Amino acid sequence: MSVTGALVLFAIIWFIVFFVALQIGARSQADAGAVTPGTPASAPAEDRVRRKALITTVVATVLWIVVCAIILSGAITIRDLDVFGRMGPEEPAAQD
Fold this sequence. Notes:
By secondary structure, the protein is an all-alpha fold. The protein has one domain.
């Protein structure tokens, strides 16, 4: 895996975890009972984006390490994910 591939993998994992984390524990202003004038009642009551971004970074880093370890160990290869057989038959290992 290249450095660019590792960074892209981290970014994808980070955003997936972040979008999930945004929904956990979200309370609207209507739920809190205090709607600020000029905002919809469905707007978030509290701004916890920094805290959720920090938690997301920790969780995404752990997941990224696990996924990178699986990829680099060769436990799962791209051929394992080729369900339609588009990569052709697997080449035999070279013999000396």
